[in-house]
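Lab notebook, bench 4. Still working through the backlog of constructs that have no structural model yet. Next entry is a single chain of 355 residues. Request: give me the structure tokens for it.
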Amino acid sequence: MAETYDSLAHLPLEIEEYAVDGLALTVSSGFERLTTLVRLRGNGEEGIGEDVTYDPDDQRRQQELGPALALAGSWTLDSLAAHIAGLDLFPAGAPEQPAFLLYRRWAFESAALDLALRQAGRGLAEVVGRTPRPVRFVVSSRLGEPATFGPVEGRLAVYPDLRFKLDATPDWDEALIERLVQTRAVDSIDFKGAYKGTPVDVPTDPALYKRIAEAFPDAWLEDPDLTSPEADAVLAPHRDRITWDAPIHSVADIEGLAFPPRTVNLKPSRFGSLKALFAGYDYCSERGMGAYGGGQYELGVGRGQIQYLASLFHPNGPNDIAPGGYDALDPVPGLPTSPLEPSFEPTGFRWAPSS
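Model written out:
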């Protein structure tokens, strides 16, 4: 098994200090998104990562606490990762969702990768021996409550070639489904059936699963709830299009699926560690399994970093990593369009700011 991580593990890095900065954005629904930038500094360089934890109170507590972790010293990327794994990343109290531990770990490890590469004067593409390629992306959206065609219609009015990943909900009626089919712009349907106890949970609806699978015969079907025998039965003829996101945090999770998927969503922040993420890339590559990436409503450097990874490891998948301006129901003209041309900085782990 090729070990991409081995090309990075022994990169040295010096950390003298670090800082955390808060980012905030209020979106059209009134939801205020908070993230935190982690800035590791040493030898005149700075490495940046982004904590995408969704609980705003967890983000505020981290920002109020400031640089409370013991990170200063001489490390390799691998030894720092092992050190981070042993730290309490939520000293103000355990997070509500266990996945948030991985999201925060990703912030520190991605910042460490950026810093180590900058101190070495090298870029990620060079070190892992891959050529960045244009990145295809889709725009992910729920269609409102109640669901309407508006979120798709408004975006297509400005960007008629846009592709979509849509969250299906039980209030999708036949008229809405038909309008979506007519756009020929839907690449993926997310059933959100693997989420439990979160604000984005969607009830399992086998009848909806059947209608969707038949109406969109070329679309990927992400995260259905196959613990329901009825849902499993209606999607059995469509197993070659079923893919997974929320349950995937490691290679072991892929291997533990009920059947091997043709493709899978390798979301960096869900893996948490660089070692686990690159093992996922290697696993899929060696087995001829497709991969794509997804975002977590990043507000800063994190979105560019997952675009960079997509350009190296899965540029042609239905990558849910659109530039931030597409979050608007009526996006302004002039946004970068799909596919995104490679636009990375010559050293470090950062996509160029224009995307």
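Notes after review: The longest strand covers residues 32-42. Residues 128-327 form a domain with the TIM Barrel fold (CATH 3.20.20.120). Flag for follow-up if needed.
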